[in-house]
Design the sequence.
C-alpha cells in the first residue's frame, strides 16, 4: 500500500511538473507585442520600459514564466492589433478592455486604470454635450486605437476624423492647430507632449470618453493554461510590488 501511494505521489509530481513546463514553453514562445504608449510601454535608449513592461517582467519572474525584455516586440498599434486578432500564439499590450473588444481576445490583468479623453488647446471653446458635437470639430485619432471607436460611438464621422498610424503625428497636428482635438489616453497624451517640450499647461482634457483598465490581450484561441499562467503570476504580485512599478512612471 505504501509503495502504491508513493507511486501516485511521484506520478502526480511528474504530471504537475510537465503541466508547468508546457505552460512555460508555450507562453515563452508567444509573439509578445507592444507599442509606443508611455508611460505604459515605450523604448528609451534602446530599451523597452514602462508600467506594463515592468509589470509583465515582474510577473514573469514571480511565476517563473521565462519571458524577458528581449522577447517583446515594439510595433505600430494598428499592426499589432491586427496581428493579435489573426495570429494564434500572440499577445498584445497595453490593451484597453472594452465591451466591444471583450470577445475578440483572452484577457490577463488588469495592469492599471486608464482614462481615454479628448485633449484640446486651452481656450478652444469646445463643447461635447450631444452626438452632433462630436461630428463638428476635427478630431485626430490613431487607427484602431480604442479612442477611435469611442469617438465614433459618440457621433464622430469619417469626414471629421484625422486618422494617423501613430500618436506623434496626431499630437503635432494638435499643437500646430491643424486639428481641434486629439482623442487618446490622457496620461499618454500629456507624457508625449511633455517629452517633445510642448508646454502641457497649454492643453486640457475637454471630455472624458471612457474610464477603464489596461490588460494583456491574447489571441482568442489561446489555451486556458497559457492565459492562466500569466493571470496567476500577476495576481501573485503584492500591492507593494505594483506600487513600486507605478511610482517609477507616474
Sequence:
Amino acid at each position: 500500500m505504501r509503495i502504491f501511494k508513493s507511486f501516485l505521489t511521484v506520478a502526480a509530481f511528474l504530471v504537475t511538473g510537465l503541466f508547468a513546463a508546457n505552460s512555460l514553453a508555450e507562453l515563452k514562445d508567444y509573439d509578445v507585442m507592444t507599442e509606443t504608449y508611455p508611460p505604459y510601454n515605450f523604448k528609451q535608449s534602446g530599451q523597452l520600459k514602462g508600467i506594463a513592461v515592468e509589470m509583465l517582467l515582474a510577473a514573469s519572474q514571480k511565476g517563473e514564466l521565462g519571458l524577458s525584455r528581449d522577447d517583446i516586440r515594439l510595433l505600430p498599434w494598428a499592426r499589432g492589433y491586427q496581428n493579435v486578432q489573426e495570429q494564434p500564439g500572440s499577445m498584445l499590450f497595453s490593451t484597453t478592455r472594452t465591451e466591444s473588444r471583450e470577445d475578440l481576445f483572452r484577457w490577463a490583468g488588469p495592469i492599471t486604470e486608464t482614462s481615454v479623453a479628448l485633449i484640446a488647446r486651452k481656450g478652444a471653446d469646445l463643447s461635447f454635450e450631444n452626438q452632433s458635437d462630436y461630428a463638428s470639430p476635427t478630431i485626430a485619432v490613431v487607427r484602431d486605437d480604442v479612442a477611435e471607436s469611442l469617438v465614433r460611438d459618440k457621433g464622430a464621422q469619417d469626414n471629421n476624423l484625422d486618422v494617423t498610424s501613430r500618436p506623434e503625428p496626431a499630437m503635432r497636428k494638435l499643437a500646430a492647430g491643424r486639428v481641434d482635438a486629439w482623442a487618446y489616453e490622457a496620461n499618454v497624451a500629456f507624457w508625449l507632449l511633455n517629452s517633445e517640450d510642448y508646454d502641457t499647461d497649454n492643453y486640457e482634457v475637454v471630455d472624458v470618453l471612457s474610464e477603464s483598465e489596461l490588460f494583456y490581450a491574447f489571441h482568442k484561441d489561446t489555451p486556458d493554461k497559457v492565459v492562466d499562467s500569466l493571470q496567476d503570476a500577476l495576481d501573485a504580485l503584492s500591492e507593494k510590488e505594483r506600487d513600486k512599478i507605478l511610482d517609477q512612471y507616474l
User: Anything to note?
Assistant: The radius of gyration is 21 Å. Confidence is low (pLDDT under 50) at residues 1-25. The first strand starts at residue 31 and ends at 34. The helical segments are 2-28, 51-63, 77-86, 146-154, 167-175, 186-195, 224-236, 239-249.
